[in-house]
Structures are given as C-alpha cells and as structure tokens.
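Render Pseudouridine synthase in 3D.
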Amino acid sequence: MERLQKVLAHAGVASRRQAEKLITSGHVRVNQTVVTELGTKVGVHDAISVDNVPITAEAPVYMLLYKPRGVVSTAHDDKQRKTVVDLIENVPQRIYPVGRLDYDTSGLLLLTNDGELANRLTHPRYEVEKTYVARVTGVPTNDALRQLRQGVTVEGEPYAPAKTKMLSYDQKKKTAIVQLTIHEGRNHQVKKMLAAVGYPVEKLKREQYGFLTLKGLQSGDSRHLKPEELKELKRLTGLAD
C-alpha cells in the first residue's frame, strides 16, 4: 500500500505537491469515491482516476537530452513548434522536461515521468547545481564577476550567489565566454544576472546538471540515465531508498 499522492506522482500525473492539491480539491476518485484526505493509502487493485480519467502506473523513465536551440522545453506547444519531447524516440510513456531551457538556449535537459523527482530537482531547497556557458557582449571586469559571486538583485528580487569563471575573451570583437554555476532555476536567470552587471548574453548553453554532463552526445541526442546516475540523483534530492 502506498499513499495516494505518491502513486499519482509516480504515474506522471503531477508532482507530489501538485497531487496533494488535486486530492484536497476533490479531483481524485478511488474506486469511484471522491477522496480528499491526504495520506489515504491505495493498493495495486484500487481503481484511481483524476477528473474521471483513469490513471495507470507507468514504468518510470529518466532521460538526458542535449537540447538544440530553436526547440521549446514543453511537452506540447500551441504554436506548433518542435518540442523537446518530439526529439525523444521509442519512449511510449508520457514524459515531460524537468524545468526549462529557453527557446534559444541549448544544452543538458532532463525528462521524466517521475513527478516527485522532477519537483525536487527544480526546488532550490536541494541546491542541485547547474552550470552554464555564455557568450556575452563585452568583457566582464573582475568587479562584475565579483558581483555575480556575491549575488545580484534583479527587478527587486535577490538572486543567490553564482560561481563564475572567465573562460576566454576577444578584445577585438568585444565578447567573452563566461561560465556560471547556479542552484536556483528562475526564469531567464542566467541572462538576467549577466545583464544586471552590464554584459548581455548573446548565446547560452547548459553544460552540466549536478554531476551529469553532455559527454558523448551531439545536439539533439538523448539517452536513458544509468542506474548509478539515477541513484545519485535520488541521493542528492533525499529520495534515496
């Protein structure tokens, strides 16, 4: 027997927190009876539905994708643009991206149907680091890099300190390649942080997510996570068995 919200999360319906809201707001039925009490336990023979749509427990899937630029980080797009899910072949389960990369940003993106793991990976509480490489307009000064390491304020909101490193620069073209490592996941965060210290981003790529890298992958390629990688991700997010 498992708690209902955990079963919903593992079925890919929603994160556990979102599943709790579905339950308490009366969207979930167990054996045709509306259940609103958190902590309700269900077994393999119980019939569960959300808004009268039966759910089935799917086998968990954990994918790593090298997202190209010009692809949206959603499962479906109203504008009919190519999505990251379109790039994943031979996976019958319904998967979705963990967080997002901008349309014009490339790099490492995780996809899964494990709502609980996805929720924890994107929650700042667990401080899973993400490393980006940006080409910026101008050559950042030591003072600008120090500001990023101390944390900057963007539109009145404080952003946590980032690890920074100047990788290269071109004085003639007045551009530089800068590496930033952050553990938050706010919308357009890296672009906003660099713009806040005077160096707008021209091109951006996420090269690392926690300990995971793009090694061996070309743009558009994907692969399943290895068992030891999944185990380490769960350890990082407090889900280890």
